[in-house]
Specification:
The chain has a five-stranded mixed β-sheet, with helices on both faces. Strands 8-12-7-11 form a four-stranded mixed β-sheet. It has three domains: 8-73, Winged helix-like DNA-binding domain superfamily/Winged helix DNA-binding domain (Arc Repressor Mutant, subunit A, Orthogonal Bundle); 93-167 and 272-297, D-Maltodextrin-Binding Protein, domain 2; 171-264, Periplasmic binding protein-like II (D-Maltodextrin-Binding Protein, domain 2, 3-Layer(aba) Sandwich). The chain has helices at residues 8-20, 23-30, 34-48, 65-88, 107-121, 134-142, 204-214, 228-236, 285-297; strands spanning 53-56, 60-63, 96-103, 125-132, 148-152, 160-168, 171-175, 185-186, 195-197, 220-223, 242-244, 259-264, 271-278. It is 38% helix and 23% strand. The radius of gyration is 23 Å and the shape is elongated.
Length: 304
Amino acid sequence: MSEIKFSLRQLEYFVAIAEAGTLSDAAARLRVSQPGLSQSLTELERALGVQLAVRRKAHGVTLTPSGAQVLRHARDLLRRAQDLGSAASGGAALTGVLSIGCYVTLGPTMLPALLQEFSKLHPGLTLDFVEGTQDVLQRRLLNGELDLAILYDMEIQPEVARAVIGTMRPHILLPADHRLAGEARVSLVDLTDDPMVLLDAPPSSQNTLALFERFGVVPYVRYRPSTFELTRALVGRGMGYALLVQRPANDRTYEGNQVVIKEIAEPIDPQRVLVAWPRAIRLNRRAEAFVEFCRDRGGVADGA
């Protein structure tokens, strides 16, 4: 086995520099001197035999391609070091930080329960989370910034492994006084001339339009909000209809306007919900426990 010429502390400093973008901000975050931080980066570069970052006084620190690659592995090593420390202490309890990403529309109706219930099982664990679109979350997964992400089964990159934790069936959202509000099911064809409120959070909009195309319907897209609640608010004011997947328990918008959910008459497959992680990286104990928790819990159910 070849000699390891770098330390975990050097990796920790390097990750902090990369995330802060400047040596001064990283030094303040770590509460160390800036010259000492700069020296640590130089020594890590010497140990690895590559330049990890370009340092410019006026423009901060920019990672080189090699630096970006090392950053992904450094984050993984530091997480595994936390696992080792927990195991060495003889405790089976999970400690440390678990970073979870969640697709923006899944966040409000799914993430709070998962965080609360998992925290009760593992009180020594710190759960951090971010919301984002599927493309952004997958990029952050592969960059090592997140341990896991909760996503729809849409446009998943081949480098991303995943497990199904539930399904949801798409539906039509109408204002309460819409002419079709009394119908049990609504056909996409019957909405051809109605204005559509298209949730534009990638890849939601592309998949919605593809679904209409599948049944030979060309929707009249009038509005393209980027958030779930603004979509519901516009529908609640009678400004159009929407095709959504999430089904909040409340039938009122933020403004108090009523909206109604209608099943789609055309045969549409349920949308799968996933928990995902980088295929090239073996899950740490914290991530493994969360994946199993989601699987056992069943995540979400069709029609929920």
